[in-house]
Design goal:
By secondary structure, the chain is an alpha/beta fold. The chain has helices at residues 2-35, 70-79, 90-95, 97-105, 125-143, 159-168, 187-195, 210-224, 233-237, and strands spanning 39-41, 44-47, 56-63, 85-88, 109-112, 149-150, 171-173, 177-178, 203-206, 229-230. It has two domains: 1-35; 39-237, Alpha-Beta Barrel (TIM Barrel). The chain has nine helices and ten strands.
């Protein structure tokens, strides 16, 4: 009987050890993935953070509405000598072409949101490819820039979007934190979300809204006095991707 319990104890101990080993491997893999500036979706790369070994942070601007606030937002970035990445929908580029050209003229990086707000939820590969290619052509004709990065306007991309982006050579840019400026109107809360416990490689998502315009100067002021450099998202990913 004693041998039976001793053997059972040894089996349980081995099982517990294996479980702990598997957990440790998963955690190690996750941490390694973060350091390499990417995560995976069905084996494809999607970027939530930049290079966490450098003191670089990016504020990405998603523009599928709120174009009337773009000029004021550009002036604020210019006041603090910050160049960043604007992801623009094809619809906005058609309707507000002057503002999009100004984004380029101010020296900012430009990426694609697809043509419509729902681009990332397209269940048809041909339709999603059309969203990307049409927007790519619109932005090229306006700005002379061929886009190579895509950001989902809402939510996360489905497998169709991921597969098409890989075929077209597009990197999918997500975010590591949001200020929720489309939901909240308390700009002090937005400032907190954009600056509290900031990490190297963070990608902070904002939108052109009236409340964001109030928060943005304080956010940029915070970074101007910090050890972090605000950079294009492509620079944030270096040297992993570009």
């Amino acid at each position: 009987m004693r041998k039976f319990f001793t053997k059972k104890l040894m089996i349980n101990s081995c099982a517990n050890f294996l479980i702990l080993l598997i957990i440790a491997m998963i955690i190690f893999g996750a941490l390694t993935g973060v350091r390499e500036s990417h995560t995976f979706f069905n084996g494809k790369h999607i970027y939530f953070v930049g290079n966490m070994s450098k003191n670089k942070v990016t504020i990405t601007v998603s523009v599928y509405k709120g174009a009337e606030y773009l000029e004021r937002m550009l002036d604020i970035f210019d006041q603090y000598n910050v160049k960043t990445t604007f992801f623009i929908s094809g619809f906005v580029a058609c309707k507000y072409s002057d503002q999009v050209i100004k984004i380029r003229d101010y020296g900012h990086e430009i990426g694609s949101l697809g043509f419509s707000k729902s681009s990332a939820q397209s269940i048809d590969e041909k339709s999603f490819k059309s969203e990307i290619k049409i927007t790519e052509d619109i932005l090229f004709n306006l700005c002379g820039i061929k886009t190579s990065m895509y950001a989902p306007p809402v939510g996360v991309p489905n497998s169709v979007a991921v597969n098409v982006c890989e075929k077209l050579g597009y990197k999918i840019i997500m975010r590591s934190r949001e200020i929720n400026d489309l939901v909240d109107n308390d700009y002090n809360t937005m400032i907190y979300r954009a600056t509290h416990n900031i990490r190297s490689g963070d990608v902070i998502l904002i939108h052109p809204t009236l409340h964001t315009l109030k928060a943005l100067p304080k956010v940029l002021e915070y970074f101007s006095g910090s050890n972090f450099d605000l950079v294009f998202v492509s620079k944030n990913l270096e040297p992993i991707v570009y």
